[in-house]
Amino acid sequence: MIGFTGLGVMGEPICRNLALKSGARMLAYDTRAEPLDRLAACGVQAARDLHDIAERCEIVFLSLPGGKEVAQVCAALLAVRPGTLVVDLSTTPVALARELHARFAARGIGFVDAPVARTRAAAHAGTLSVMVGCDEPDFARVQPLLAHFATDVARCGGPGAGQAIKIVNNMLLFQNVVALAEALALVRGLGLDAGLALQVLAKGSGDSFALRNHATKAMLPGDFPKNAFPVSYALKDIGYALELAERLGVPLTGAANARALLERAAAAGHAEEYFPVIAKLF
Fold this sequence. Notes:
Elements: E1 2-5, H1 11-22, E2 26-29, H2 33-40, E3 45-46, H3 50-56, E4 59-62, H4 67-77, E5 85-88, H5 94-105, E6 110-113, E7 116-117, H6 120-125, E8 128-133, H7 136-146, E9 150-157, H8 161-189, H9 194-201, H10 209-219, H11 231-248, H12 253-270
Parallel strand pairs: 1-2, 1-4, 2-3, 4-5, 5-6, 8-9
Antiparallel strand pairs: 7-8
Helix pairs in contact: 8-10, 8-11, 8-12, 11-12
């Protein structure tokens, strides 16, 4: 049986894709009843608590807000049977991923850091990208399951490597969104058609995933919903990048600028809105 904990914006559609495509029995847990009720239609059973998942599942997926929540849930999951595999789809500090791998390994339990990237729409479509850090035998075991909700799966190295690449990915994304917010401010200030400008830029060297998705679908129409990746989550992830940079002695001026703008957006009351809302600062 497969267990799943954390049925938020990304977790619920990931769990649904696993249930519909894997053919495996699934047991899920969340503090809210609503996603469990929706997933029941896909055959997903509701767990009593985390201990229920620990007792009954051979593979357990986590999709949680960040390192604090992952550490808390993993403390309860240390009771799983030897041979169980814990797969963390959340974004957490590299050091925590390595620590959890060591703690689980000491009990004969596998641990895989497998943070996901791309958008909420990609989670629903099953077209996410997954960056994996783990031992090779664990990757062989989990890869077929990851393919049920991702079109791109890469083992980036040993424990913690998946988190490292995901943190770098998000750092790049946030800086791209800052650049796009500045570009749109210039375009609009000049009285040009912003939609046309993005179409033209998408055909040139200024093209990017962020332009085709975050700028075109959120920043252009001014659509920054609360049930998406919010400013508060972006601040968490850029913080992870800057913590790594400080430890390595690498100055990240672009990342520091992105954090400053995210902090301004949060202070302006946008902390729980979709993070491209930073465009409003311009």
